[in-house]
Amino acid sequence: MSAPFRACLLFLLGIPLLLVVLFWNRISLGGPNGQAPDWVQTLSFPIDVAVTRTLGPIDPPGEAQSARVLQLVASWSVAVAFYFGALAFALSRCRGNPLALDAILAWSVVLRVVAIASPPLLETDPRRYLWDGAVTAAGLDPYRHSPLEVLLYREGRIDAPSRTAEFELERLGTLSLDRRLDRATCTR
Predict the structure, then answer these.
(1) Which residues span the domain enclosing 155?
(2) Which long-range contacts (CB under 8 A, 24 or more apart) does 109-118 make?
(3) Residues ≥6 apart with Cβ < 8 Å to 113
(4) Residue pLDDT, tens place only, 83-126
(5) Secondary structure (3-state) at 49
(6) Shared-domain flag, residues 104 and 157
(7) Which of 93, 104, 129, 169 is the most exposed place for a label (fewest CB within 10 A)?
(8) Which of 57, 87, 116 finishes a domain?
(9) What is the DSSP string of 55-114?
(10) End-to-end CA distance of the chain
């Protein structure tokens, strides 16, 4: 096997890794037709088709978080398998091959650039930090009422346990409508 052929094979083994990273960029930016740039949606299409056909749609109603975790585990398992395959191939067949080293370095740069531009996957902490800061700035304790409690109160599905809690939940309900705390704002 010639050195250029080995380098090309190593380069091809990196493509599934890139596709999985782009797929998760797209998912974390808002689901099936989210806010991901067109180039991310186009390049992630092969993984999207494979994951959707085997595990179902990205955001099934009522089960979005558990479906995303399953898709994350499945798609990253495939990516890790390709990674270890490329690693084994590089260690066994590409020693002393400068073209193989160039392919490895190129993929490491590409994957890191894509990862740097990626929003956090399955992560809600930035939104919670914004919420806690907004509640504190409004003069309320961010730990007294959970965001879920505020949402349920605003929808009329629960009652406030006291007059003070009712006042706080009213203020928090108004605060929860602030556009600066929207999901789209927090992922940019």
Answers:
(1) 125-186
(2) 110/14, 110/18, 111/14, 111/17, 111/18, 111/21, 114/18, 114/21, 114/22, 114/25, 115/21, 117/25, 118/21, 118/24, 118/25, 118/28
(3) none
(4) 788 778 777 777 777 777 777 888 888 877 777 766 665 565 77
(5) helix
(6) no
(7) 129
(8) 116
(9) H--SS-TT-HHHHHHHHHHHHHHHHHHHHHHHHHHHHHH-TT-HHHHHHHHHHHHHHHHH
(10) 46
